[in-house]
Every structure is written in structure tokens, then in C-alpha cells.
Amino acid sequence: MSAAPLRRTLTLLLAAALSAAAAQSGTLFRVGYSVSGDHLAPLTITLNAAAPAGHSVTWTFGDGGTSTGEQVAYTYYRPGTYQIQVSLLDSQGRTVSRTEISMSVRSSGAEHADLTVLHAADGTVRLSGLGSVLYRPGPVRLLLNGREVTGPQRLNSGSNTVTAQGTTSAGQTVQRQLTLTAAALTASPAFDSEVLRLTNQARAQGWNCDAKRPGGPALPPLKGNPTLDLAAQAQSSGMALYGYFDHTSALDGSSPMRRVQAAGLNPGSVAENIAAGQQTPKEVVDAWLRSPGHCRNIMGDFTLVGLSYVNRPGTKFTRYWTQVFARP
Length: 328
Hints:
This protein is of the alpha+beta class. It has helices spanning 20-24, 189-205, 226-242, 256-263, 281-289, 292-298, and strands spanning 2-4, 9-12, 30-34, 43-50, 56-60, 66-68, 71-76, 80-89, 95-105, 116-119, 124-128, 141-144, 147-148, 153-154, 158-167, 173-182, 186-187, 207-208, 213-214, 223-224, 269-276, 304-311, 319-327. The longest helix is centred in the middle third of the chain and has 17 residues, at 189-205. The chain is flat, with a radius of gyration of 24 Å. This is PKD domain-containing protein.
């Protein structure tokens, strides 16, 4: 089992005084923002302001950046402490209220390029630069066998070289390179569907993880999610291809949350169940339900799930199973 914490969301009510005219009209000016709880650079902050009719909002971010509008997103690439100034303007462009938000952005460590690799059972792979730390805007270049790529790619037989390249804030090129294995894997959509059915059956029965039997509060069913399926496939395929059994990938060092984000989802919380060797969906779900940590993931406060069964004969366990749970 593995779980990633909820992203923290913070909201602020402005304390700055409004102009006399605005105050007499009973106008309220609220500003809120959400930001990841770790505050690590590069850090994207989403801001919103409820401006009264006939008013507009301007933002100054403390690093030379500015914006206008009631909803904005802004990325701080460098660590530091910044003062975000929010101004409410009336229809004549006059400032009627102003306040500041102090935003601390922590260092993510030394700048480097990184790779997150999402294998699929059909022999394709998706590459992501997620995990890279670069204190400047600009994409991470992704290369497969020396060719820049985007989207899913089919691997050549045998070994393949993948590379992530980026440019640091000092203008230096950094890169990470990995060797990928192409091998035959077999998936089973029928097995995945049955794992989902048995998982939701346990939730409907109110499975008690301590007593290891039904009898607790019933929970709503989890909904299968194709994006989470990609993250689950990456984990099952990775274990089958590279001979590990762990929530941290032995190939690229990715965590369950990082794989989910690389697949294209940015949820509030994530958890992952893995298993190896079980012959059937019933056998694997029964094993998870009788393991306290895995059971708590199944019975957790999640709404979405991704699933992947992969078979690779000749490996240590042959059969590999993954569930990835998420809540937006």
C-alpha cells in the first residue's frame, strides 16, 4: 500500500479597508488562493477574487509579473518570499481596496532533468519530464533513441534509450538518461473489470478492515478512470519488466502520485495497492481486503480508481496487479 497526502488549500479574506463609497454600499471583496502544501519551486498558485459589479482586479506578484482578472494562475520558478499585491479598481480605474499575500517558495534542491516513464502492456510508452527541477520557464525535451517525441510511442525490440533534457536558470544543459526494455506483456480487461466489481462489492458491503468481514458503513462505488488506468499500467508493467515489487519504481524512482500526475491527472490525494503472483481477481481482492493497509485504501475516501493486471511468463511472479485510487 502507498498513500500520498491531500494537497492543502488555503483561503484568505482581505482585511484592507475599502473606500468610503464602497464601504457604504456594503461591498465585500474576497480573495482566495490554492497552492500545493509543500510550497516547492517551481510553484504554481491559483488565485481568485470576488469583485463587485463594475469593478476590476489587478495582481502584482512581487517578481516583476502582473496580471488582471478575477481568476489567475501564476508560477514562481525561483525560491524566495514574494509579496502578492491585489488591488480592486472601480469603473474609473481608481483603487478602492488593496491587500497583500506573502508567498514563500521553497527550494526543490539542485536543478536537474528527470524522467517519469509510463509503460503500457501493448508495448507503448509515455514519457514525462515530471520530477525535473528547473528554476526557469521552458519545456523539458524528451527523446526516444535520439529523436524528440511527444505522446505515446512504440518501443523497438530489445533495449531503447530515453532522455530528458532541460536548461537551468544559469543556461546550462542538464539531462537524465534511462534504458528501457521492450518485452511481451499480456493484459486482461476482463480481469480489471472483475477487480473493480469485487472492490465495489466490498465497499457496498461496508467491509470492516479490522474484523476482516462485512458489517461497517456502506460506501459509494469507485468509478473507473482511464487516466488512472495509465498510472496503474505503468506500475504493473514496470514491476513485470524490471523485476521489482515496490511502490517506488526501480526504473525511474517515481512515486504513485508522480505517475498519476505524469499520466495527466492532478488529484488531491492518491493511494496505490500492488500485488504479485495471485491467479485470479478474487484471490487478489481477498488478499488486499485481509491486509489492513490495503483494505483501508479500498475502503478509503476515494472516488476514482485505475486498474491493471499484467502477465509476463518467466518472471519471478508472472502476474502483477495494481490499483490506483484518487480523489480530485
